[in-house]
Amino acid sequence: MTTEDLVGLSSKEVNFVIEYTKDFNPRRAAEAVGYEPDSGYGLTRKKNVVAAVERITSHRLETSHIDAEWVLMMAADNAIIAKQTGKISASNTALVIVAKHAAIDAFAAEKVLVASDEMIMERLHRGRTRMNEVRKQLQADDDEEVSFS
């Protein structure tokens, strides 16, 4: 982290950002630097704080060489290790991470493509029209059965 990462922040906000990037707990970070604990969430929404946190976390990722491929490999390794040690729940959790990874996208078949709100509204309208026709037909059938001659 350099001072450039913290440009535009007050000294108290700088301390907040430093504390917040330790564990990403806004309540704890706010309290640690003298803010009210509940103000931490608001601080994480301030543009200059968000920008400083993004610069710091990006720098950490670059220097630690953590990327999507690394996460995939770690999750796959963890799934194998957990299974070998009999921790099936942990293995399954790691497998879900692997399955959701963009390169794997095992759940792609479960995704539903919705083109637009207009498409949804049109489908709803057609469904309601069909349902009204069915109701009218049922009502007509009921009226015929009830007639006394």
Could you walk me through the main structural features you see in this protein, from its secondary elements to its overall organization?
There is one protein chain. With 149 residues, this protein is mainly alpha-helical. The chain is 69% helix and 0% strand. The protein has 3 domains: 3-64, Arc Repressor Mutant, subunit A; 68-110, no CATH class; 112-149. The protein has helices at residues 11-23, 26-32, 39-43, 47-64, 68-84, 88-100, 117-146. α1 crosses α2 and α5 (68-84) packs antiparallel against α6. 10% of the residues are buried. The mean pLDDT is 83.
SSE topology:
Elements: H1 11-23, H2 26-32, H3 39-43, H4 47-64, H5 68-84, H6 88-100, H7 117-146
Helix pairs in contact: 1-2, 1-4, 5-6
Shape: extended
Number of domains: 3
Contiguous uncertain segments of 5+ residues: none
The total of helices stands at: 7
Tell me the radius of gyration: 28 Å
β-strand number: 0
How far apart the termini lie comes to: 92 Å
Roughly how much helix do the residues carry, as a percent range? 55-70%
Largest sheet: none
Specify the structural class.
mainly alpha
| Percent strand | under 5%
Q: State the name of the first-level CATH class of the largest domain.
A: Mainly Alpha
CATH structural architecture of the largest domain: Orthogonal Bundle
* CATH-defined topology of the largest domain: Arc Repressor Mutant, subunit A
Mean pLDDT level:
83
Order of helices and strands: HHHHHHH
